[in-house]
Amino acid sequence: MGNAAKFADGIFEARAGIGTHEVIIEAPDHVLAMASLEERQIAAVLRAYGERMLFVKKDKRWQSILVYKNEGREAGATLEHVHSQLIALPEVPREIMDEMTGARLFYESRGRCLFCTILTREIKERARLVAETERFVVLCPYAARFPFETWILPKTHMPYFEQCSADDYAELSRCLRATLTRLTRRFGTLPFNYVIHSAASAGEPHTYYHWHLEIMPKLSHAAGFEWGSGSFMNPVAPEEAARMLRATQ
Amino acid sequence: MGNAAKFADGIFEARAGIGTHEVIIEAPDHVLAMASLEERQIAAVLRAYGERMLFVKKDKRWQSILVYKNEGREAGATLEHVHSQLIALPEVPREIMDEMTGARLFYESRGRCLFCTILTREIKERARLVAETERFVVLCPYAARFPFETWILPKTHMPYFEQCSADDYAELSRCLRATLTRLTRRFGTLPFNYVIHSAASAGEPHTYYHWHLEIMPKLSHAAGFEWGSGSFMNPVAPEEAARMLRATQ
User: Fold this and answer.
1) Minimal Cα–Cα distance from B18 to chain A, Å?
2) pLDDT in tens, A196-221
3) Residue pair A117/A109 in contact by the 8 Å Cβ criterion
4) pLDDT > 70: what percent of chain B?
5) A223 vs B68: CB contact, 8 Å cut-off?
6) Which three-class secondary structure state does DSSP give residue A132?
7) Contact B195 A103 (CB under 8 A)
8) Which residues of chain A neighbour B74 with C-beta distances below 8 Å?
9) Greatest CA separation found in chain B?
10) Rounded distance, CA A240 to CA A140, Å?
11) B 203-232 residues inside an 8 A Cβ radius of A
12) What are residue A239's DSSP bridge partners?
């Protein structure tokens, strides 16, 4: 309701609608699905994300950068050629602000990173793990909003995506491609979104934060309950989703 | 990230999954669209909402009640017979908490209701008004998330939906039916959701709050940007949506 208060006070008109928007075209050929790309192509896409984030961050008007992908019409894609997008905003939007605030409060009260703590627990319990590599964990998060929602997190604490090394990008490419392949083998052509949550550039360094990539397959529709409450009904338990994805190579 | 912190601390398992869920069947005949119902039928449905809310509130385990409708498969409806739903939760979910907090902070700092202030401004400017009756205003909100998002608000300050009188329900029925008819005449059969935001029952009275009904037509897909940021791209300005709805009787 921050917007509503600004509107009611009549101060909303003063803000200019500025930002930056880039489209990352992921292959020269007319490929439709990221899962069809080779590992080296996906690594090049991830490296391009990082390079563009470093470049865009130089402009101090931008307080946050969101990299995301819409694949398939039902996932909101308006182009069919395999692509992803980068948007830089003059503010920190609600989802990123809430996640950063939660991570900061956890860090301040417990003295350790929220995401590192979750990773330690998930690696020990294994029920929600999809895959584990040297540098990354692929898991279905405990309070998953969507059926088969799957996150990829670096094991090493790293606030910013663009801190990744060439080796990180290469291994992340393998993890991401393997995860999309599992989903495709399970469901066939599947519309999905992913987003990269990286610490905002406003007021950095946010050393308490831990970047991650959230994959959201479009197997269900957000409806009145979800839009009205911000809570999500998810008919597939993350343990079940993880078990099925582990069983699908 | 409240959930994530509870999970990381290992205290999440302790909470039982309790709540109440009711389905309101809106007509004895197999009608598919609420806009096809007669005014008196819709008034009976709205009265039923209020009566069920009063009844459900007697159980002090529930901290909030959400009444909502999903019409059409793309809006998440799994039943086609005209219906709506009521869910009572043992907590105040994020969207309702955020709206209540915003309204409370506005009230505390300005000494007046946020929604009454918005209504005064909207009635004066008229650009976003769809209709105005003796008791209600129908408008496209200033920071609309969705194309043709339309809200109905009582002109009289009223925190709780279930405080409505029989005359309020009758007039709201006319407003709601007329609005759905405008949308249907404009777009044909249109999947949509609506939700009623009424003050939470936890810690009442929340005298600063002002109930309202939010109609969300499904003309677009939330995609990676929306899920990742919590901000919304809306290609139809609310002034344009309101102008088109006013022109469609």
Assistant:
1) 13
2) 999 999 888 999 999 999 999 999 88
3) no
4) 97
5) yes
6) strand
7) no
8) 221
9) 56
10) 9
11) 214, 216, 220-231
12) none
B45-75 pLDDT tens trace: 999 999 999 999 999 999 999 999 999 999 9
Residue B167, both tokens? 């005359």
The chain B residue lying nearest A109, using CA atoms, is B5
A172 — pLDDT class (breaks 50, 70, 90): very high
Average pLDDT of chain A to the nearest whole number: 94
Q: Is B77 left (phi over 0), alpha (psi -120 to 50) or beta?
A: beta
Max CA pair span of chain A: 56
Q: Are B236 and B187 in contact (CB under 8 A)?
A: no
Task: Convert the pLDDT of each residue in A10-66 to its tens digit.
Answer: 765 545 689 999 999 999 999 999 999 999 999 999 999 999 999 999 999 999 999
Selection from B80, B245, B74 nearest residue B151 by Cα = B245
Query: Would you state the pLDDT for residue B48?
Result: 98
Q: Return the sign of the alpha-carbon dihedral for residues A245, B2, B3, B9.
A: positive
| CB neighbours of residue B99 within 10 Å | 21
Q: Which residues of A touch B75 (CB under 8 A)?
A: 221, 223-224
Burial of B240 (0-12, 13-18, 19+ CB in 10 A): middle
Confidence of residue B16 (pLDDT cuts 50, 70, 90): low
For residues A56 and A115, is the Cβ–Cβ distance under 8 A?
Answer: no
Q: Which two tokens stand for residue B74?
A: 């793309």
**HSE value, Cβ hemisphere, 13 Å, CA-based, for B50:** 19
CA-based nearest residue to A148, from A185, A174, A120: A185
- The pLDDT of residue A6 is 76
Q: Which helix (H) or strand (E) holds A119?
A: helix A114-125
Burial of A237 (0-12, 13-18, 19+ CB in 10 A): middle
Give A73→chain B minimum CA distance, Å: 9
